[in-house]
């Protein structure tokens, strides 16, 4: 029988009592850290006043939300600019504009709605693409005669979207003497574009003229819908001055980007009585897009044997 011996190489450290206030200090430090963290989160949330959802818009504004457009930025690499296409496979995206169209048509006390101004608080909210897709939805899906006017004379963009010339357009028509004919472009059988023409650094006199009012008024007699794309109302007064020439205005807000203060400024500049509603652009894509597309996709009957 063997017996093993353990050799002690270090002396044991004598036990010591923990000071009475140590545990209390640790608890105070822990609670203090949590409070500081909560304070930092609160300050960050208060400083970030971007509108992220329809719920926040409803909480802060009385204007109705007429449409919510999902973000399709991921699809740009395949289809270019996110424009509505004939038989568009992005069902939720296309359906969002059809729903917006229905909201406009069935608005109370708006049976004679024909001329519509589309603007935004900031330049990157997506007003021009929204105006374009509304025009495409009305003209292609519902076969309405639509005139789309590019009234952003400082930074025109509609000619780039449709890839058409911009040498002559609204700006030249406003400067023409008498009642000269406007240079419009036929995009399709039902969609006509009045481009902005050459950029104008100070277009205020032309946009506020009787000639501009006559253009919109005459267009309303020849088309089912007249859509006017304007500069951002939060930066320039153009949209405010043009709004009195139309039946109403749509205010485009980009989710997770447009600050509350900018939207409030835009609403005050336009006037609540002129705003038909809000379009919330760039919302999170529907999580069940695949199921939605499969449910509403055309049913192909099985081949007969």
Please describe what this structure looks like.
- The chain has helices at residues 22-47, 54-60, 76-79, 91-105, 127-141, 158-162, 170-175, 204-207, 210-222, 238-243, 260-270, 289-296; strands spanning 65-70, 115-120, 146-150, 185-186, 191-194, 225-229, 248-254, 275-283.
- By secondary structure, the chain is of the alpha/beta class.
- The chain folds into 2 domains: 23-49; 54-292, Rossmann fold, CATH 3.40.50.300.
- It has an 8-stranded mixed β-sheet with strand order 1-8-7-2-6-3-5-4, with helices on both faces.
- Helix 4 crosses helix 5.
- The radius of gyration is 30 Å and the shape is elongated.
Q: Nutshell version of this structure?
A:
The protein has about 300 residues and is α/β, with parallel strands linked by helices.
Topology:
Elements: H1 22-47, H2 54-60, E1 65-70, H3 76-79, H4 91-105, E2 115-120, H5 127-141, E3 146-150, H6 158-162, H7 170-175, E4 185-186, E5 191-194, H8 204-207, H9 210-222, E6 225-229, H10 238-243, E7 248-254, H11 260-270, E8 275-283, H12 289-296
Parallel strand pairs: 1-8, 2-6, 2-7, 3-5, 3-6, 7-8
Antiparallel strand pairs: 4-5
Helix pairs in contact: 4-5
